[in-house]
Amino acid sequence: MNIYLHQRGVVLTGKAWEIKAKLKELRHSYSTVESWLQSVEGTSSRPKRTASATARKNAGSSAKLRPIV
């Protein structure tokens, strides 16, 4: 199971029973998901990464920007 924290929310990936078990575990410490996110938000040891809707142009690639489909 993986937990991805983003600026606009959180993504839990894994099997359904893993996610349910994790939420049950968190329920003992936090009353809402929002309170859990607020406590985790400031304690991230990894640098914040920002995602872009358009990929950066590689050297030697064409100048056309194509939409992501």
From TrEMBL:
InterPro entries: MciZ (IPR025177). This is Z-ring formation inhibitor MciZ. It comes from Halalkalibacter oceani. Pfam families: MciZ (PF13072). Residues 40-69 are annotated as: Disordered. Residues 40-61 have a biased composition (Polar residues). The lineage of its organism: Bacteria, Bacillati, Bacillota, Bacilli, Bacillales. It comes from the Bacteria.
